[in-house]
Amino acid sequence: MRLTGIHHIAIITAHLEASKAFYTGVLGFRIDREVYRAERDSYKIDLSLNGQYVIELFTFPGAPERPSYPEARGLRHLAFAVEDVDAAAAEITGKGVAVQPVRVDEFTGKRFTFFADPDGLPLELYEL
């Protein structure tokens, strides 16, 4: 098997409208498709960034919360590449999103910071 890339990341939200506004209005994703699946009482929104399909945003009735802190097994966080972490952090802070102080990766020397989506999913800005 030869993987050719990552097709998408699926995120389950308890707050569809807040998450939709966050991923589009704050982070700049575009909605490619939004469907309601009656058989599952579930919404699915396909989001893209820079013309590339990236995130599936779902709702499911009664979906349990996923523990994040302390560090739980599973997906730890989703990281977004940026050219200037300070500028990106300032932009989303200006949109009402709390951002942790910028840190430096001790092994790569790259700068990064963390913030959270409306469901508390840890997200990262990582400077290229």
UniProtKB/TrEMBL annotation:
Pfam family, one: Glyoxalase
Name this protein carries in UniProt: Glyoxylase I family protein
Keywords: Metal-binding
TM spans (from-to): none
The organism's place on the tree of life at top rank: Bacteria
GO molecular function: metal ion binding
Record organism: Dinghuibacter silviterrae
Metal-binding keyword on record: yes
Residue intervals of the VOC domain: 5-128
